[in-house]
Amino acid sequence: MTIQPPSCDKVDIHAFNQLFNNTTNSYKLVFFQALLNILMERQRSSVHDLVIELRELATEMLALGWYPHNFFRLSFGVQDQTGKILDCLVFDLEEQALTNPDTHKRLRRAIADQYEAIRADSMLRFVPYRLLSPFFLDELKGLQDSQKDKRIRELANSRFSTQEPPIYRFVEAERAIEVHPTWKDYLLREIAIINGWVKHHWIGYLQDRNPSTPAIIKKITPPLTRSALTQQTRFWQAVMVQSAQRCIYTDTPIEPNDFALDHFIPWSFVCHDQLWNLIPVSSSINSSKGSRLPLEKHVDRFIDAQYHALKVGRRNLSDSAWNKAIEPYVSDLRLSRQDLLDSSKLDSAYRHTLGPLISLARQIGFSDFHGK
Fold it and tell me: What count of other Cβ atoms lies within 10 Å of the Cβ of residue 249?
């Protein structure tokens, strides 16, 4: 189903609906999302000023792009320069801090502090003007690209006080934009649907450029919360009570009441907490591995540990607990309940699943973990 902006007889919805037509790079999408974010933030803070500096918009654009590019390793496309700018930014973030509400503020401060060094203003070379193109299609016909920005600026300013204004005009010697009050009212009144509309286009844009990458929808913004892994921890505790476990990375013993669950394929790549991808390790190893990828020797040990855990679980869990525990194995590894306990079939299914995931994650920039 196609998402459309809500109708309104006070603004030019036909032009608005064409904002993201023929999108060849990320700039229009992140510029408009940055504009929405700033308007929402000002509304929450009871700030009524409709003038927004372009520097503030560029900072928010890069903050929005940082999560999918730097943390989740998504490509914005070969023509897009956003990733190159973000690669110059000095900002480190561990998975544990991803859901911290202060993290986005720290990210924006880092971008603001390094604004000139990373050449953040290059994000604004065309997009503030070209985003308004749908409002002036007739007037722009026949113009060369080099002439369009000046003409769009002139048209935006001259039509700002008419019955069909553009979303904003350019002020303060083109260092800022002023959002039209009618557009501000419309955007904030319909913010839930319009946010969904923009995210729909953003997800489609990223999916086209990362066709094999899983969970794109979960990688456009940081999650609000992370799972506590309570059920997964109980499963492994029940296994360890019956049978001793050793760390697949260090070969040291693991105690049932003193371990962490490691996402064998990093969470920042798969974005899920399925039991088939979790393995008990020491807390120090879990911290040092972080978002790095396992080696082939770790794959062998991981599959052996999972097979052993499934055998122990089948012997000691009730039927209902067992069936609930193995649901993700059955669905994601595409094995029957009986085949989960067949070592060769489980090994084959795991290698068929893990191999492409590790290969793709390595290709897009995830590094290897060599253990201790």
Answer: 24
Distance CA 368, CA 298 (A): 11
Query: What is the distance between the alpha carbons of residues 70 and 311, in angstroms, rounded to a whole number?
Result: 39
pLDDT average, residue stretch 218-232: 87
**DSSP at 134:** G
Tokens describing residue 341: 């306990």
- Using one digit for the tens of pLDDT, what is the confidence trace for 1-24? 567 899 999 999 999 999 999 888
Residue type, 253: P
CA distances 245 to 58, 149, 217, Å, are 50, 65, 35
Average pLDDT rounded to a whole number, residues 213-220? 93
Amino acid identity, position 183: W
One-letter amino acid identity for 215? A
Count of CB atoms situated within 10 Å of the CB of 159: 18
Find where tokens 């722009």 sit: 140
- Beta carbons within 8 Å of 109's beta carbon, 6+ residues apart: none
- Give the containing element (helix H, strand E) for 182: helix 181-189
- The answer to whether 75 and 209 have CB atoms below 8 angstroms apart is yes
Structure tokens at 36: 């929405």
d(CA 159, CA 182): 13
Listed residue (23, 108, 106) closest to 58, CA to CA: 108
Strand runs (DSSP E) across the chain, as ranges? Answer: 51-53, 168-171, 176-179, 245-246, 253-254, 260-263, 278-281
Which helix (H) or strand (E) covers residue 242, if one does? helix 230-242
pTM: 0.88
**Is the pLDDT reported for residue 370 higher than 90?**
no
**pLDDT reading at 102 higher than 80:** yes
Confidence (pLDDT) at 2: 67
